[in-house]
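TASK: fixed-backbone design
INPUT:
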C-alpha cells in the first residue's frame, strides 16, 4: 500500500498514529506529497487532489482521513479503534467528527492567513475563530466520556497538537486574532487528559523523519 500525505515538522498525523497502533509500518510505503504543488501526481490518483490518500495493492484508492482510519483499523487484531455498535460507536464517531471539524476549520484559517491582511475577511475570521472556541468547549465537556483509546480520542489529540503547533504563527498573520491564546485556559479537564496522551509514542514520533 502507498500513503500519500504531507509530513509536517513537529507534528504526527492521526493516520501515522493509527498505522503505528495497528502495527502496519512495514506494509505501507509513505509518499510525501504537497497537494498545492502544480506538478503533484495526486490529482491523477484522487480526483479531489487531497491528502491523505491511500492506494491499495489492488490499485484502488481510499480518500479522506475517516475512511482510511477505519480501513486500517480493519487490518489488525488489537482492540478496535471503532466500536462496532451501540451508543459508544455513535459517541465515538461524533467526537471524531468534532475533532475533524476543529482541524478543518483551523486549516481554513491558515489558508486565509496567506492573504495580505488588507484582503482578508474579518467577519469570516471572527466566525471561524468562534467555531474553534466552541469546539474546544465541547471537547472539555466530552472528556468525562472518554474511556479506552478510540478514534475519537486519537483525532482529538491530533487536532489539539496541530492547533498548538500552528496557532501563534497563524494568528499573527490574521486580522484581529490573539496569538497568545491558550487553548487549554478554562478547560482543566481537557488539559489534564491531553498531557499524558500527547506523550504516547504514537503521537510523538512521526513515521517519516523530517530534516
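OUTPUT:
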Amino acid at each position: 500500500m502507498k500513503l500519500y500525505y504531507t509530513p509536517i515538522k513537529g507534528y504526527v498525523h492521526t493516520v501515522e498514529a493509527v498505522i503505528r497502533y495497528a502495527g502496519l509500518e512495514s506494509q505501507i510505503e509513505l509518499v510525501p506529497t504537497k497537494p498545492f504543488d502544480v506538478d503533484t501526481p495526486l490529482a491523477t490518483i484522487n480526483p479531489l487532489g487531497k491528502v491523505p490518500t491511500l492506494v491499495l495493492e489492488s490499485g484502488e484508492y481510499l480518500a479522506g482521513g475517516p475512511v482510511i482510519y477505519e480501513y486500517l483499523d480493519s487490518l489488525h487484531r488489537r482492540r478496535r479503534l471503532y466500536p462496532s455498535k451501540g451508543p459508544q460507536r455513535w459517541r465515538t464517531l461524533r467526537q471524531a467528527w468534532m475533532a475533524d471539524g476543529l482541524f478543518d476549520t483551523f486549516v481554513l484559517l491558515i489558508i486565509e492567513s496567506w492573504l495580505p491582511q488588507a484582503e482578508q475577511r474579518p467577519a469570516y475570521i471572527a466566525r471561524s475563530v468562534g467555531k474553534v472556541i466552541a469546539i474546544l468547549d465541547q471537547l472539555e465537556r466530552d472528556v468525562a466520556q472518554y474511556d479506552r483509546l478510540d478514534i475519537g480520542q486519537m483525532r482529538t489529540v491530533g487536532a489539539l497538537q496541530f492547533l498548538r503547533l500552528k496557532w501563534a504563527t497563524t494568528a499573527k498573520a490574521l486580522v484581529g486574532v490573539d496569538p497568545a491564546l491558550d487553548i487549554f485556559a478554562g478547560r482543566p479537564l481537557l488539559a489534564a487528559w491531553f498531557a499524558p496522551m500527547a506523550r504516547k509514542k504514537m503521537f510523538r514520533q512521526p513515521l517519516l523523519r523530517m530534516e
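COMMENT: The longest helix spans residues 86-113.
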